[in-house]
Structures are given as C-alpha cells and as structure tokens.
Amino acid sequence: MKRLLFALPLLLALIIGGFAIWGLSGGRDPSALPSVLISQPVPQLDLGPVEGVATPGFTTDDLVEMDGIKLLNVFASWCGPCRAEHPNLTRLGAEEGLTLIGVNYKDKPEAAAKWLDELGNPYAAIGSDFSGRAGIDLGISGVPETFIIDAEGVIRHRFAGPVVGDGLRRFMEALDEVRQ
Amino acid sequence: MIPELGQFALSLALIAALVQSVLPMLGAARGNALWMRSGQASALAQFVLIAFAFGALMRSYIVSDFTVVNVVDNSHSLKPMLYKVAGTWGNHEGSLLLWVFILAAFGAAVAFFGRNIPEALKARTLSVQAWISVGFVSFMLFTSNPFTRIVPPPLDGNDLNPLLQDVGLAIHPPLLYVGYVGFSIVFSFAVAALIEGRVDPAWARWVRPWTLAAWTSLSAGLGLGSWWAYYELGWGGWWFWDPVENVAFMPWLLGTALLHSAIVTEKRDTFKSWTILLAILTFSLSLLGTFIVRSGLLTSVHAFAVDPERGVYILGLLFLSIGGSLALFAWRAPAMEGGGLFAPISREAGLLINNLLLATATATVLFGTLYPLFLEAITGDKISVGPPFFNAGFIPIMLPLMVVMGVGPFLSWKRADLAGVLSRLKLALALAVIASLVTWYVTTGGPVLAVIAMGVAVWLLVATSQEWIKRVKLFQPGAVARIRRQPRASHGMTLAHLGVALLAMGATASSAWKEDIVVFASPGTQLEVAGFELTFESIERQQGPNYIAQVATLNVTRDGKFVTKLYPERRDYPVAGSSTTESSIRQTLAGDLYASIAEPAAEGAKGKWTLRVLYEPLVNFLWIGTTLLVFGGSLSLSDRRLRVGAPRKSKAAPVGATPAE
C-alpha cells in the first residue's frame, strides 16, 4: 500500500505523458478554432428588423433563397473592432459582389441605427438579436464574427475577430477556397 | 570560422558530458576516488566548452554575421547593440544554448564551490547533471543547431520580433532560465541521494543554497516578465494565466514549497521523501515548461518555434528524466522515512500546511493548464481555460496560506503554544479587519474575495513585522547589534514574507478595482477615468532608429487642475513588418494611469485611433513586493551558514559538513 503511494507520482506523470504523446501526433493545430457548424446548413433563425432601420430582418429560408456567396456578419455598435472592419466588409460586398447579412448582436436599436447612419449600411438584411439567442445558435465566441455561406446556404467558414490587416488576408484566403 | 569552432566546442561538450555521466557514477559505486573526482574536471570542461559555443553565437550576433541562418532570422544590422546581444537568446536555438549553458554553469558551480560535499554524493550529483546535459546538447546538435550556415548569405537580416526589443526581454529570459534550469542541480542532488539511498540533514543543508539561488532568480525572472508584459506589450495587465506563464510559475510555486520543506529536513530530519519528491517535481515542471513552449502542444501568446518533431525529441527526454527519476523514487523512497516527531501545533506542522497548500495550488495550475489538452483528447472539444478558473481555484488556496504565513514564524519547533501566539497577534487581526472594512467602504462594489484578500494581506504584513520586532527586540537597547547578530537568512525570510504581503495587495487591488476604457479617439476627444479627465490633444509622426512612431499627446487633469501629459506611441518596424505599442504611464504609489493607442481604425475611419486608458490601483506594490522577495532571497543566500563558495572563515565547521565516507 505504501509502495503504491510512492509510485503515484510516476503514474500521474505517465498519464500526462500519454496525453502529450496524443497531443503531438497527427496534424493537430492547437490554435485553430473550429466551428461545429462548418459544412452545416445555417441554423434556423428568424430575426426581425432593427427598430428604426429601414433594412428588413431575415429568416434562414430568406438566406437560402439569396443568390451567390453571403457573408453573415455578427456586429454591434458597442464593439470597437466591428467599426474597424466595417469599411473592409463594405468594400468586399461592393467589389466582390457578395451579399452582406448583418446580425445586430445585443445592441440598442437607436445606437445601432446611429452607427449605421454614421458608417453606412452595406447590409441586404439585418436581423436584430437583442437577446443574444441567435448568437448562441451560431455558436459565436464574441463580436465581430463573420460566417461565409455558400450559394446553397451551407456555412463554409467561420471567422472570429475583425476582418482587418492580417485578418483580412486570411479572410480573403478562406473566401477564395469557398469559391473554388 | 568562429561559428564552426562554436559547433565543434558544442560537440566536444557532448563528449565531456558523456564521460561525466558515466565515470563519476561508476567511481562512486566502486569507491574509486580518481574516477569520482574526474566529474569535477569534466564539469568544468563542459562549462568552458559550452560557454565558448555561446560566446561564438553571441559574436555572430554582435558582428551581424549573416552567413549564419539563426542570425539572419533573428537580427538586423541596424538594430541597437543591446538587442543584437539579446537576440542571441530571443529564438529557439539560441535560447536552448542558453539553457544548456546555465545547466553546465550549475554543474561547474557545484564542482568548483561544493568543497564540503562528500565525494560520493558530489560525483553522483555531477553525473546526474551530465545526463541532463547529454540529453539537451544532443537535442540541440541533432535537431536545432544554432550554427547552421546559409549560402548565399543575404544582405541583411529579418530583424528580431520588435516586441522582443525591450530591456525587459534582454534580461528576463536569462534570469528565468537561471531560475528554472537552476532547479536541475537540486534535481541531481535528489536523484543522487536516491541512488545513494540516504537523505540526512546534511544533505538538506547542501541542497538549500542551490534551491534558494534558483528560486531567487526565478522570482526575479517572473517579476520582470510580468513587468515587461505590463509596460512593453501594452496588454494593460501583468498576468494572464497563459500556458507559458503558468509553466514558469509552477516551478516557482513548488520551488517555494521545496525551500520550506528542505528547512524541516535540515532542522528536524523529517519530511525526507517529500523533500526529494518536491526536488524531482520542481525540475520536472521546468522540463515540462521547456517542452510546452517548444512543442506547440498548447496554444499560447508566447509563440516560439512550434515544431512537433522537436516536441517528440523533448518528450523522449522528459520520459527518461521525469519517468526515470520518479521510478527511482517509487523504488527507493519507501525505505527512507523516519526522523523527528512533532506535535500538531508546531513549526513543522505550519510548514507542512504551507507545503500542502503550495502543492495543491501547483496542482490546480497544472490541471488548468493541461485541461484543454485532456478534454480535447477525450471528447474532441476545444476550449481554453482562462483567468476565471485560475482565480476561482488559486486565490482560495493562497488566502489560507497567507493566514498561516503570518502565524508560522512565531511557532517553535516540535511543540508550540498557539493560544500564546494568537494573543500576540490581536493587533494584526484588528488591523486586518479594519483594512477590510476600509476597503469595503472606499471601493464601490468589487468581489467580496478581494475585500477579504486585502485584509489577509494586511494581516500578513503586520504579523510579519511584529515577529521581526519581537525577534530583534527592536524597542530595547542594543537592537542594532541584535539585528546584526541575527542570521541574515532570518531577515531574508521576513523581507520575503513582507514582499508576499505587498504583492498580494497589488495583485488584488489592480485586478479587482481596475478601470478600463476603450474609445475611438481623434484630436479633441475627451474621456474620464477614475477621477482623471483626459483630452486627446494631437498625434505626430516621429522617426526612430529602425521604426516609425506615431506619438499621441494626452492632457490629464483632475478636478480641473493639470496633472500630467501622457505620450502613448505606436511603432511600426518596416523591416520586420510588425508594430508595437509603447504605453505611456503616470506612475504613483496609489496607482498607475496607463494609456496606449492602437492602429488607426481601418481606412474608413481615418484620423481615428483606438485609445485605451486604464487605471490600475496599487499596481506598483507588485513590483515592490517582488523586489522584496528577490532581495530577501539574496539576503538569505548571503548568509554565512548557506554560503556555498566562500571559504569558511569561522573555525567551527558546520555540523555534518565533514565528508561522510
């Protein structure tokens, strides 16, 4: 019994070692942040418009009916990085012919309306997610997040964080992949 | 030519280490004094050779020798000299060379200074140390050679990561390494003792100075590291529970436990197998740290060379060293217990509680650090474990530890009078309660735990001071003489404990009552933080030696009166293609007002800057506390009883220092 006690540190070390071996094997990228939604249809959403904004809300069915590749962008007026990525997304939408769909996450309608007035509104539809329910369905970890949705309404890529600088480059790479 | 000589020296060092790993060990087993003594020569030779290799690499950096791949990747001819030198260890290969250099230095130090250590123990210790050397020097030669040449050489280098161009970085890795590689010698002592099958108070006495030296520089290294994160990285915090921080912190926690349990082994001849286990585990955690940083096993902000190939090699080394030593422990340690008995209320018991709490804290941090790996292996889910876990798991262990720390030094060995001690501490208790109440009153809201923590920190501060006052009888005549007469180690303890109290205050206040505002600012923007009004006045372009800076000017007033101007900067390094944040800080003892600016917010928002302003109360207590901790450690290390190098001036040799042959 006493011997077993003295062997305990060794056993624990070996167990940790076993996990480490597993961790090193196979092309595992510890910094990748996958989404369970990749290659899945967009979850069922039914979001009303943001009060005071003329752009309509949307449902998942509306999304599927839209042509081409869509960017589903989760944003909020209280979120600094969203402001930073906004011009890039606007440009992407215009130059690359992508449809921008917004999800206004946990935001005051009047603040969102003011924000859109100030920076411009490139979105074809904006759903208000005041309760954060859609955010949970989409499994976001923060704002902004942008999902690339293909013509069939299937989520192809999830991008966490602002689409600026190096992020813009990575986002473009992901976009090119989806297009192929 | 010089890089080739460096590589040659490294290869010779491997041979010296191979000899050292076998010959002294065999000599100790057979009682061959000559073989045993060969360990000293080979340890010194190994040290000189690795020092030469290290010098050769450093020279390549200093003269910007762009025929060496490592220099090309991590240096640039325009870089200030300090960072050229620091570039030597700012990368995987170079830092590994520093690692083995320090390993060899500790081996050589034992060979050179450890005159009073019995031959057999010394020979075995040096052999074990050489086993580690063999592992890591061969790792370097086979997988990460720093001296590889490049043909044709490029005109200039790729620059060192600008984030790493800071005085903090220039000195923090070497200190950190002296700390956690320094525990290697303690590990070697422990394994040698297990092989020998004997642990006695004398053993603990020889081990303590080495533990203390490693612990002190690890404290300094951790302190500088978090200071660097706070001032240079502009992260607005000083500790993030990042995996790489954790792996450096765990050896510190366990090393602290070891420091205390070795005292019990020395004074009371007990806790033997526990001390040995701690010595093994402390260094094992250091090795685990080396492994995690370099293998890419866990994701971290400290991006180092991520290469699973290297990971497999280090994992093999870890298996041999940690697995081997723990197997040896399981085999030999059960025969070793015994020693003095003690009452439940005694200094031994106090130190036992200290050890249990520190070990639990280490286990908590270890679990939190590795949990994402465990979970991913079992369920495939990817998660990251952040500050909430560590705050919830770690702080409740630290609070009772600090309560016990206040009482511990009052207790006497074997049997103590707790009631008597507590009655002395009425003042400390009263002040602690008052401090908590004042904190409660002054701050609006904030976690209850933080209010308690402030009280506990005051308790520790007052109790430690009281103990010192009582010990030196400060208010009676002749106090100065008594202070001088007392062993420096005991003053060192007082200082270190005071350091912990201040550190706890700084840590608590700066995390619980921090104010943090992020705005988009352009000249004219005004904001208010913690009673200060800030006005963003202007922003200008400035040219640095190898960067271009955007410097903002902020005017700070309080109640309408001018306080100071802050100049946060954003630096772009065109060669390296990256940029850094230079925060501007108004430092006072009460707290830091901290401003940093980030990239202009995209093209659409020209002229707007992301301005972050923080107020961190009492954050400077952290650095003062850490300084006391390091100073306390150094003071103890200079104690005559522990002094390892100096020839003994007093005739009376310490008990147990005679070679036990």
From TrEMBL, chain A:
GO terms for cellular component: outer membrane-bounded periplasmic space. GO terms for biological process: cytochrome complex assembly. CDD domains: TlpA_like_DsbE. It holds the Pfam family Redoxin. It comes from the Bacteria. One of its GO terms (molecular function) is disulfide oxidoreductase activity. It is found in: Cell envelope. Signal peptide: none annotated. InterPro entries: Periplasmic_diS_OxRdtase_DsbE (IPR004799), Redoxin (IPR013740), Thioredoxin-like_sf (IPR036249), Thioredoxin_CS (IPR017937), Thioredoxin_domain (IPR013766), Thioredoxin_ResA/DsbE_sf (IPR050553). Keywords: Cytochrome c-type biogenesis, Disulfide bond, Redox-active center. The keyword Transmembrane does not apply. Belongs to the thioredoxin family. DsbE subfamily. This is Cytochrome c biogenesis protein CcmG, thiol:disulfide interchange protein DsbE. It comes from Litoreibacter albidus.
TrEMBL record, chain B:
One of its GO terms (molecular function) is heme binding. Residues 89-296 form the Cytochrome c assembly protein domain. InterPro entries: CcmF_C (IPR032523), Cyt_c_assembly (IPR002541), Cyt_c_biogenesis (IPR003567), Cyt_c_biogenesis_CcmF (IPR003568). It is found in: Cell inner membrane. GO terms for cellular component: plasma membrane. Residues 315-640 form the Cytochrome c-type biogenesis protein CcmF C-terminal domain. Keywords: Cell inner membrane, Cell membrane, Cytochrome c-type biogenesis, Membrane, Transmembrane, Transmembrane helix. One of its GO terms (biological process) is cytochrome complex assembly. It is a multi-pass membrane protein. The chain crosses the membrane at residues 6-29, 41-62, 96-114, 126-144, 175-195, 207-229, 249-265, 274-292, 312-331, 352-374, 394-413, 425-442, 448-469, 490-513, 618-638. Its main location: membrane. It comes from the Bacteria. Required for the biogenesis of c-type cytochromes. Possible subunit of a heme lyase. Belongs to the CcmF/CycK/Ccl1/NrfE/CcsA family. This is Cytochrome c-type biogenesis protein CcmF. It comes from Litoreibacter albidus. The lineage of its organism: Bacteria, Pseudomonadati, Pseudomonadota, Alphaproteobacteria, Rhodobacterales.
